[in-house]
Structure formats: C-alpha cells, structure tokens
Amino acid sequence: FLPERSNLTGVRHILLVLSGKGGVGKSTISTELALSLRHSGKKVGILDVDLCGPSIPRMFRVQDNDVHQCDSGWVPVFVDQDKSISLMSIGFLLEKPDDAVVWRGPKKNALIKQFVADVAWGDLDFLIVDTPPGTSDEHISTVEALRPYKPLGAVLVTTPQAVSVGDVRRELTFCKKMGLRVLGIVENMSGFVCPHCSECTNIFSKGGGEELAKHAGVPFLGCVPLDPQLSQSLEEGRDFIQEFPKSSAFPALTHIAQQILDGTSQRSS
Amino acid sequence: QSSGSGDEALRDRRARILSRGLPKQKPIEGVKQVVVLASGKGGVGKSTAADILTYFFLLFLTQTKEVGLLDADVYGPSIPKMMNLKGNPELTLKNLMRPLKNYGIACMSMGFLIEETAPVVWRGLMVMSAVEKLLRQVDWGQLDYLVIDMPPGTGDVQLSVSQNIPIAGAVIISTPQDVALLDARKAAEMFRKVHVPVLGLIQNMSVFQCPKCKHETHIFGADGVRDLAKTLGLDILGDIPLHVNIRETCDSGQPVVISQPQSDAAKAYLKIAMEIVRRLPVPPA
C-alpha cells in the first residue's frame, strides 16, 4: 500500500549507506557522494538516521541550524543558497549540539518512522540515507519504512582490516535477509601516502574490502585512501569535491559517484 | 500555590515513583571491580584498547590474580578475532557459560554464541536480554577486574549495563576528529546521567609517523581530545599513535603488547593502564 501522494513521491532514487562496523566512514562517504552527485548536476537529500551520533550536519557546517515545520511536515535544512543539497538529522532537533540521545529502541523507531515519512523533501534525484553502525532497531525500522518506496539499494562501507570486514560480512547477510539490493562495497581508509616522501603505508591493511566483494559476488566500488585533506574538509564543513580535485581521495570518490549514476541510468533504460 | 516544602515533597514522591521501574543495581558475583571502555563513536579503537589494557592489568598489578574481558558489542563483536578465540562456550553444572581464555584473560562475547558470518538483527529488548546473559550467566569465577568493551552509541546496551551493575569507572576513548569528539562528549554526558564516574579520556590515532621518512602526519587532526578533556574537566589518560603494528597484530589475534612489548604503541598503552589503575577506587577486600 503506497499512499497516493507522500513526501517521498518526488524522490527518484533512494540509497542507503551501511556498514556493520563503526568508524569506517559511512557519513564521510555519504557526504562526499552527495557532493559528487551535486557536481554532476543532481539534487540530493541526506537523511541521517544515526540518532546517537549524528555526524552529517557538522560535515556541512550547518549544525547550528534549526528545523521548521510546514503543512506537509518538516522542512529539510539546505546547505547553501543553491538548495541543491538538503539534510535532515536529529542533530537539528537537539537543543544543544552536544546533548546526548540516550534512548531505547521503541523511541528510536518512532522517530525514524517520522523521519522517513514526514520530511518535505520535494523533488530530489537522490536521497542518501546515512545509518549508524550495526544491524539493530534503527536499521530494521529504516529498511521497513523505506520498503514501499523501493530503494535503489545499499552501499556498504568497510575499512580493509579483518575486524571491519567481519562486521561487514554480517551486514551483507542482513541486506539479503531484508531483501535490500547491495549496490557495492567501498574500501575506505585504504592506504596512506606520506605527504613528505610518498611512501604508502597500509595502516589499516589493504584489500579486505575488495576480497569480500569478490567472495560475496557484489560489485566493488573502489578503494578510498586516507587523506588528511579530506578529514580536514569534513571538520570545516567544506566542499572537498569542489576545493580539492587534486587530493588523493578525489579520484576514488568521484568514481564511486559515477558508478552509482551509471547504475541508475541502466535501470531506467 | 504550594509552599517550598510542598514542592520538595512532590519532587521526592515523583522521583520515588519514577525509580520504581528502574532495575536495581546488583554486582556480578565474584567480580571485584568493573571498568567500562566506551566511546560514543564507532571505530576509534575501543576493542583494541580493551584487550590490551586488560592484559596490562594482569601483567603489572602484583595483587591482581584474575582478569576478565566482556565484549558487550552484540552487533559487531571484535574481541574473538583480536584475542584469537573461537568456539561455543561450555556450560558448567550450574548452567553458566564458561568464559574462553587466552593470554590469561577470561573472555566472553556475543561472537562466541553466533556463527562468524551471522548478523544479529535484533531489536532492543532482545539485545538487553542477551547482555543480561553475558553479564550474569557467565561463570567468571573470582575476578579482580572485569573490563567491559562497550559498543558504539548511547543506547540500549550502554543503559542496560550501567543500570544493572555497579561500575567502578568508565574510560572514554576518542580520535582527534570533530565528529568523534562530539560523540565522546555524548558518552560522557550519558555516564553522568546514569551516575557512573568517568576516569578520563584516551586520545587514539593521535599521530602517524611514516616508517620510511619519519615524517609525522596528524591524519585525523591534532589535540582535539585534549581540548575536550579541558572543557569537560576530565583528565587525558594518554595518547596512542597510529601504527601499522597495532592493526597487524589485532588482525592476527595477538595484541601488540605481547608481540612487540618494546614498541611505542605498547608503551603508550602501558602508561594508560597505570593511569586507569591510579584513578580507580581502592578495591573491596
């Protein structure tokens, strides 16, 4: 049963960014993917359902913004005058940005349902849903709430090391159980190139993500290296894709966005 | 208009009624002190630090005979891999689970109860019940310290653990990035709400030294944790650098402190372990 006119009717493609493991760069990848897609002329929204650790507002430097209501529900926060990227996160609803949301499952589920149904996104090419780590209430509720709108699928993020890959392997099983298509795996923090002598050190190992993709039969979207300029951009809420095209993480990030775009054009043709 | 004392009486009554629903704190049988390692943010090095610090407690505290490590991350249990342990726990005659042991540390984790590739797709209530089992239905024996490795976030598991057992102290670990610090702050706030003392902060992944040219890069920023500690009025227990050794040894299931005890990384962890012990209250006799 799909309501005739809902807040998600104008959204062309919905994709989730998942990981079994925390701290692998889901929010980073969500942010950079949104920025890359914007640079390809698309209108993008990001829904941040990480209620305990909402990182997205900060990455766009809009953490102090307020959220307003309109007739159809909540108005998402636009990151600039352009209005090409809009966000919704619990971060905007907290009185102080460092307020802790210490809630049990049922309360979280209720808010997530509201987030999925009651944000007036308008017309979007892509809605990216950034999730917390794991396979818990938030994930089950989000996937179930989005199911009627037929999401494009999920991008899984991992770092190369064994403990991350292990958790992401579990996430793949979760996707299968929930009937969520896996668009591919991203291996993040894959190698660090010393800015001084260009020696590459695999601090978090290398290849684990690629191997998992091969093993599981899902597309491998690429390796993103550790890039201090990327970390800095995110801290300062800057547009990495616009400002650092020569930086080491740029080619990988734009390539991931391109593969997502190619995937959608194949689907509609 | 009610008078001042009337207001107070009302507040007391309200507090008493609200607290009726809360679980009573009961210590785990045989465990002298519980130390909790949390972060708010995922992927900052909790599990890595947890197993190393537990090892140090055992190694360097002469009065310490037995230590335990509980991996409370139900969704992403990392401890089995890091401690090179596998398999279903045996049951004692009293139907308690026997912890798996390696490097002298008794370990329990969700990872021992499920298949390696199976996800735990559970809602909060089931998770709480699993955590309760991991706490109370384990034959820990007599432990001087039980270190609990918390999952990321500030939700069901953290609440259940904090409300059910008395905790001697919590240590919060973070990397210098803004987003990690934000979550570390929330974790500190959460512990304050549930009346668990925070012993201090650990700054992890503080700096990376290129093995070839020794150039230092602050990949994730610099000193963010120091600033946060100052704001919150907490101590920094120590800094841990990024080093390939740490990850390599975790992947192979042998903590860096055992395979490379003289390394900078091992020394950094040792210092932190000593600081934690200094700040813990005197254990009960």
Write up this protein.
The complex is a heterodimer of chains A (269) and B (285). By secondary structure, chain A is an alpha/beta fold. Chain A contains 9 helices and 12 strands. In chain A, the strands form 3 sheets. In chain A, strands 5-6-2-7-1-8-9-12 form an 8-stranded mixed beta sheet, with helices on both faces. In chain A, strands 3-4 form a two-stranded antiparallel ribbon. In chain A, strands 10-11 form a two-stranded antiparallel sheet. In chain A, a hairpin with a 6-residue loop joins β5 and β6. In chain A, α1 packs across α9, α3 runs parallel beside α4 and α5 runs parallel beside α6. Chain B is α/β, with parallel strands linked by helices and 285 residues long. Chain B has one domain: 3-Layer(aba) Sandwich (Rossmann fold), CATH 3.40.50. Helix content of chain B is 39%, strand content 17%. Chain B has 10 helices and 10 strands. In chain B, the strands form 2 sheets. An 8-stranded mixed beta sheet of chain B has the order 3-4-2-5-1-6-7-10, with helices on both faces. A two-stranded antiparallel sheet of chain B has the order 8-9. Chain B is globular. The mean pLDDT of chain B is 86. The chains are: A alpha/beta (269), B alpha/beta (285). At the A-B interface, α3, α4, α5 and α7 of A face α4, α5, α6 and α8 of B. Chain B: One of its GO terms (cellular component) is mitochondrial matrix.
